[in-house]
Amino acid sequence: MEEYINLFENIIAETSQKVDYIDIRAGIGENTALLMKDGDVDEINTGMSLAARVRVLNNGAWGFAYTTDLSKINEITDTAIKFSNSLKGDVTLSETDIIKDKIAVDVKIPFKDISIEEKKDIMKQANDAATIEKVNSTTVSYGDSEINELFMSSEGSEIQVKTSRVRMALNASATNGEIIQFGHGSLGGVKGFEVIADADIEKFGREIGEKAVRLLDAQSAPSGNFPVIADPELTGVLIHEALGHAVEADLILQNDSILKDRMGCQIASDIVNIFDDASLKEGFGYYPYDVEGVKTKPNQLVKDGKLVSLLNSRETASKLNMKSSGNARSLIADQPIVRMSNTFLQPGDNSFEELIEDIPDGIYLKGSRGGQVDTGKGIFQFNAAEGYLIEKGEISTPLRDVSLSGNILETLKNIDAIGSDFKLSVGFCGKDGQTAPVGDGGPHTRILKALVGGMG
């Protein structure tokens, strides 16, 4: 993107005399996506993308324009100015550091060094490992991307970031002729192809197939209030959905969060510490700077059970008299919105055995099959991938089709013990029609009382 710096500098210098603020974000990307169904490749998509957007703030209103033809950068700048001049609003921006930086993700095996055939071979390995007896269908998806981005603003920031990201996911379905059950898993990271090359692909695929088959013989879950142990994946989903969305400042400002006006209040038990950390390189939601040029760092949201911070963009931070947390995210074509990055519960001191040993009658839940949350009402429902009864401190009968639901604040206050292990999952989060890569997780977590339901 070096060749565009002088061009953008001139545009910003000229435009900043007419408006209160302008920033330009541009990127060049390469990506590959493959889809394999039942061992046969169904889709192969490869391509390059080039895009730029201009964002102008004037009279408290945004003007935003986007193009895939950089020869039209002056034209879209004029369009953005016209949009902002035609509106009047109350937008202001919180202060931020002026940064000049150039950074690249550490990559050991570039994606371009691995052929499509080699990528297909690894997908086939995962597929074959999952295709055990009673598994009747599999789907393997693979995607990698490398993007060079440039951000420049009228305040003086100039940031170049080169990011590589890869993910492979596998779904397996199994049937005994009467019912169908599913197994799912994914691998990924903000690195090069070494994420996939270093993984035990045979084990990855086999465990997903075995999960689907195992669930065929599992029992339906009982319904009622039970002590619950959530594994790291389900802990991550709980923290992401129940807490993470509720601390997004745009939802707070829209009166659509149970946590509005709760800053400094006890919202969870005093052993609960929750972070959102985009600077965590091990997380799939890693990025060093957000799309407004704000440097990322660990952001503690909950400390000893108290709400101590929110997720902010510069716009929402200004309205709340706070600083941006570096959580403005979007594709180049989209307006930035407040998003999570790597959101997790901090580990505690308990072993798994200590978590379950004094539970006479409870349920152990593993993995996630999706769910929903109403941040305004403060209620949620998630579906676990699988579960087990806990009887007299021991794991016993396998369960399937288990749901976990409840009130966000009551559930967080019912966390009474936290494991010492830790794992982050690889995933994507949708909001306002936009999708962003995220990591979420934590340790095994014990919830003293939670509403569990069986689904047939």
Question: How would you describe what is shown here?
Answer:
With 456 residues, this protein is an alpha+beta fold. The protein has ten helices and 25 strands. A hairpin with a 2-residue loop joins strand 1 and strand 2. The longest helix is centred in the middle third of the chain and has 16 residues. The chain is globular and about 70 Å long. The N and C termini lie far apart (55 Å). The mean pLDDT is 96.
SSE blueprint:
Layout (H helix, E strand, L loop, with lengths): L4 H11 L5 E17 L2 E19 L2 E7 L5 H13 L14 E5 L11 H15 L4 E19 L4 E18 L4 E10 L4 H4 L3 H16 L2 E2 L3 E7 L1 H13 L4 H5 L20 E3 L22 E5 L2 E2 L6 H6 L8 E2 L7 E2 L3 E4 L6 H5 L4 E6 L4 E4 L4 E6 L1 E6 L2 E7 L1 E6 H6 L1 E4 L4 E9 L2 E9 L2 E10 L2
Parallel strand pairs: 4-6, 8-20, 9-16, 15-24
Antiparallel strand pairs: 1-2, 1-5, 2-3, 5-6, 6-7, 9-25, 10-11, 10-15, 11-12, 13-14, 16-19, 17-18, 18-21, 19-20, 21-25, 22-25, 23-24
Helix pairs in contact: 3-5
